[in-house]
Amino acid sequence: MPCPGTISDLHLPGGNGVRIDTAVYTGYTIPPVYDSMIAKIIVHSENRDEAIAKMKVALEECVIDGIDTNIDFLYKILENEKFVSGDFDTSFIKTEFDL
User: What is the enclosing helix (H) or strand (E) of 80?
Assistant: First the structure.
């Protein structure tokens, strides 16, 4: 869900195989009418398991205070057995998380 407000603290992950696409910064105010994706985290690695592990670490390193984010939900996806095994389709969120 979109969450307008001011980002009071921001720390984004980095490192080999981690890319962040964003324009937000500490003190940035997200207006009530905006694209709800304030940042995109992209990771790559040698294989799926390593990429999932790298993404978990990247999400753990994220600090975005002052607004609500979906970081906890993304972490739950990464821990889901069907997602980890690659056994999912376009109904994944609805069937696995009852949304």
Answer: none
